[in-house]
Amino acid sequence: MEQLKKLKTSSDESSTASSSWGHNISFKREKMVEVKEEPVSSRKIQKAEREKIRRDKLKEQFLELGDALDPNRPKSDKTSIIIDTIQILKDLMTQVDRLKAEYVALSEESREVDD
Question: Are 29 and 14 in contact (CB under 8 A)?
């Protein structure tokens, strides 16, 4: 449903009249112009388009993350990608701690052999 809005605009035509006291009074003619108003403002449309672009980009990044974890994964929904990513990160952090401990042990062993 289109909404119509009427606006007053001044025209360039003006007329001058003299009052009974000898003063000149200037009058401008005004005309009514109909302006069609959009039902949804362009700002809302732009915001919706930006939000769609943001969601699409986020979806692509989730799929890319899922492919990086396992290209042949059966599930590629966001929840399973996040759960798998968390588990892999926990496993990697455990492995890093284990390797650090192994490095310390080997460094001590190396010092003992050198002495």
Answer: yes
Strand-pairing partners, residue 35, are 5
- Nearest-CA neighbor of 39 among 83, 9, 80, 5? 5
pTM of the prediction? 0.53
Listed residue (76, 56, 51, 54) closest to 66, CA to CA: 76
User: Using one digit for the tens of pLDDT, what is the confidence trace for 14-63?
Assistant: 555 555 555 555 555 666 666 566 566 788 889 999 999 999 999 999 98
Gap between the terminal Cα atoms of the chain:
91
